[in-house]
Write a structure and sequence with these properties.
Elements: E1 10-14, E2 17-21, E3 32-36, H1 43-54, E4 58-64, E5 73-75, E6 78-80, E7 83-88, E8 91-95, H2 105-118, E9 123-131, E10 143-147, H3 150-158, E11 164-165, H4 174-185, E12 189-196, H5 203-217, H6 224-228, H7 230-250
Parallel strand pairs: 3-8, 3-9, 9-12, 10-11
Antiparallel strand pairs: 1-2, 2-4, 4-7, 5-6, 7-8, 10-12
Length: 263
């Protein structure tokens, strides 16, 4: 028998967003939520998709709203919400190839943080790109971090990885809103930024972020395949990158990484 729709186990409305779960699941501790929304170089999306594949995460739910564009994801013949939720053991991952309209992002971020609290998440993690003008000339990419509090800063320090504190500059977009809201709520959140292209898909920056993710969480994700297939991924994701560029321009993404006049 062919299935045409997902089974709804639980559904709740958070800030006009419907969080749908297909089955009951509990996270092990310490628990992490990783958020993969389109951003510079599609670094977040490429990283999240690779992690889903390599850790064999199970699709456990999705997020939908009448405020989102009229889009449905069709996976194995079944209609899914545009924002998908995956989980396994102590990892919860929100994945979307759709970048919501800019006015909608604050409500979405707030709903995601509310949902993380309800699922007992210990750390909210975001991995994205940090556009640099000379990216094509850079072979060794630098990575930076922005913690929401001292506990998260210690969490990074104890992992013993090569990460620099992002001390001066701007970040723009959904992760900027998330880290500000996490600070306001006194939640544990971390934004990881790796130097990347702005308008071209950047699998190499994604691989660097995944290596940092593995060191932080202890969830080992092999990036060899991602690096070997970098050119193929770039070609496949090129059109998608073009589609989200107007949204990034609307958010004034070009301001990112420019140091402020006064610090």
């Amino acid at each position: 028998m062919v299935k045409y729709m997902y089974r709804v186990y639980r559904e709740e409305l958070i800030n006009d967003f419907r969080y749908i779960e297909y089955e009951d699941f509990q996270l092990e501790r310490p628990s992490y939520m990783l958020i993969g929304l389109p951003d510079a170089g599609l670094v977040s999306v490429i990283s999240a998709y690779h992690i889903i594949r390599k850790l064999d995460l199970m699709e456990v739910g999705g997020v939908d709203s009448h405020h989102l564009p009229p889009i449905a994801v069709i996976h194995k013949g079944i209609v899914r919400p545009p924002i998908r939720i995956f989980a396994k053991k102590n990892l919860l991952l929100l994945y979307s190839e759709l970048l919501p309209p800019t006015p909608l992002i604050p409500s979405l971020i707030n709903s995601i943080l509310d949902y993380s609290v309800r699922k007992g998440v210990d750390y909210v993690l975001c991995m994205t790109g940090l556009p640099i003008p000379n990216r094509i000339e850079v072979e060794k990419l630098r990575s930076f971090y922005i913690p929401s509090n001292q506990r998260v800063a210690e969490f990074v320090k104890n992992a013993g990885i090569e990460l620099e504190l992002f001390e001066n500059g701007y970040i723009v977009g959904p992760y900027a809103l998330l880290i500000k809201e996490a600070i306001r709520r006194r939640m544990n959140a971390l934004v990881i930024l790796t130097e990347s292209f702005m308008e071209f898909p950047d699998p190499e920056a994604s691989a660097k972020n995944i290596e940092i993710f593995s060191a932080l969480t202890g969830l080992k994700v092999d990036v060899k395949e991602l690096i070997e297939e970098a050119e193929v991924i770039r070609i496949k994701a090129r059109e998608h990158m073009k589609r989200i560029m107007p949204n990034l321009a609307q958010m004034r993404k070009e301001y990112e990484y420019a140091p402020p006049l006064y610090t």
